[in-house]
What does this fold into?
Amino acid sequence: MNVFDRRLWRRFWDIARLYWFSEDQWKARGVLALLLLLLFAFTALNVVLNFVGRDFMTALAEKDMPGFNRTLMIYLGVFVIATPVSVFYAFVRKNLGINWRLWLTNHFLGRYFQNRAYYHVNDDKGIDNPDQRISQDISSFTVTSLGFLSILFFSLVQLVSFVGILWSISTTLVMVLVGYAFIGTLVTIFFGKRLIGLNFQQLKREADLRYGLVHVRDNAESIAFYRGEDREEGQVKQRLLAAIGNLRLLIGWERNLEFFTKGYEYLILILPIVVMAPMYFAGQIKFGVVTQAEGAFISVLGALSVIVTQFEQLSNFVAGISRLETFSAALDQPASSANAGDASTIESVEESRLALEHVTLQTPDHLQTLARDVSVLTPAGRGLLITGASGTGKSSILRAIAGLWNAGEGRIARPPLKDMMFLPQRPYMVLGSLREQLLYPRLDRQTTEGDLKNILERVNLTGLPERVGGFDAEMDWGHMLSLGEQQRLAFARLLLAKPDYAFLDEATSALDGPNETHLYGELEASGTTYISVGHRPSLFAFHDQVLELQGGGNWRLRPT
It folds into this structure.
């Protein structure tokens, strides 16, 4: 990645313009205008201080007490004005950064949850840790963008303001300044371009390390049962070593760059004085002019040396732009890249019935055929059981009906997604209260506590509200409830929602026989048409027909 790559900055603009041309554009631009006005005022005060400093140092060198006192009072007056300008500038910039981050994060979240992009983006091997890209990379993008905008605007104003002063004092000093800045920029780019790739890799390695630790936390019980501590410790340490190894390379290249930049900064302190000293010794200028030239030289050089002084931060920023841009592109095309091009896909249409018509289902990469030329009609009110050995594609049939997988051929007629509900083997426990667990995903439904208690009684969880502290209690439900309780709670959610069609993927696998029979009886009484995936022979009693997947794409349909 090259700092001067036009495609890179085109990517930056593609992301940045989302906010600055959004429905909040005028408010955003107004705050930005205020920010630049404060920055301009701060620069103007620096120009005033440059002239006051010249007279101040001249009065001191010539022992001019009245002149010294007069310039001292002006100094103090400028400080009084500059303090609130500087404070409000920082305040406005931080608030603008917060507003930008809030809007851009909401924008990406909207795209992340639209058309199930959050599901499909996991198939993109080029997109690691989408959570970090939303939470951290967007924050870094907005804050750093405003920081660099401020630096560039400040540098431009500094350049315009002080180069005239410098030119009036010494054209030789201006020539030295331009040459010094040009050489510094070239050397910095030569040594620093390697930093961009290393910073990109460091962001990825750190995110991988955090993911490994989160994975251990989320699967602590399973790891404990397997006594897999050594394996998990090894994988976390491996990720740590990868992050540290890249970090060592990174700080090594930063060291090489700093060998130059530190010397570059130190030489600035004496270079203008060395150039001006012959004129001062010859009596052509006063001492205050020397200090004024030094201040102007440092200001203009700082404006011309932005890349030198900011290259480390710039390399981090460029790496962040690339991560955010690739994530944005993945959200625009969320489906697996294997489904792109001329690859065939299953047609899915909304109708009042559920039917598979000559469906050939393949894995998303089109490398394996799970079922070939399947035709099944599930009449309303009649149950269908999908059976077969592990790996034959039972759950994949449900994914195809839900629209998550579409690799293959044929046609699926199904009701609208809002009229269907899917229950996986391990139910999804939301972050929230018991009430939200039962109402999910339609939390806005008006339901009384009496209705909720009745539903829990129907799934044999009568005492659950009292046990946890009421329907508004918030718990870590995935750890607090057993798998069997979670499956019964998912059935309560299903009975409360009353969808036209329900799809149960081994949704009673953790239940005993009486509980399983009771729940299927409740489901049958509700009038919901249900399709189940499972192995248990007991499931046959609750269904009218069986779709048996036999492996190798073969199948057969028979009555129970």
About this structure: The chain has two domains: 6-334, 347-559.
